[in-house]
Amino acid sequence: MEKQIWYEDFVPGTKLISSTRVITVDDIDRYADLTGERHPVHMDEDFARAAGFRGRIAHGLFGLALIEGLKAQLGCFERSVIASLGWDKIRFLAPLDPGDEVYLELELVEKRPSSKPDRGIALERGRLLRKDGKLLTSGDHTIILLRRPNPE
To answer: What pLDDT shows up at residue 62?
Structure first.
C-alpha cells in the first residue's frame, strides 16, 4: 500500500499520475452486461461506424468509472477517503476506443475543514487521458477525507 494522503497531506496543486490500462471490447461488453446499457453505439460495430466513429466505443460512464478505478490503484486514498459527495463538471470530450491505452491525472484542487473535527471536505479533479495526451473524460469529485489518525 502506498503512503496515504490524509487531510493534512492534501496539497492543492499536487498532481498524481496512475499507471496505464488498455481498453478492450471485453471491457465494453462487461460494462454493458453489468449496467444493462446496451446502446448500439457501444455494441454494434456497423451502427457505430455509421454514427461517425471508428467502431464501437466505450460508455462515457465507463470512462468516469475508470477514473475511480485508476485512482484506487494509486493506493494513497484507501484508508483516508471515506465517502464521495458527488461529481460535478463531468465531460466526455472524446470517444474511448478499444485499444486505447489510458491513464489518470488526478489533481488535488482544494480542501476545507468540515463540521466534524476528524475530517475535511476536499475537491479532486480527475482527467482520463489517452497515452498520447488526448483528454477523454474529466470531472470534479468532492470527497470526505479523514485527518491523520493519532498514533497509538
So the answer is: 98
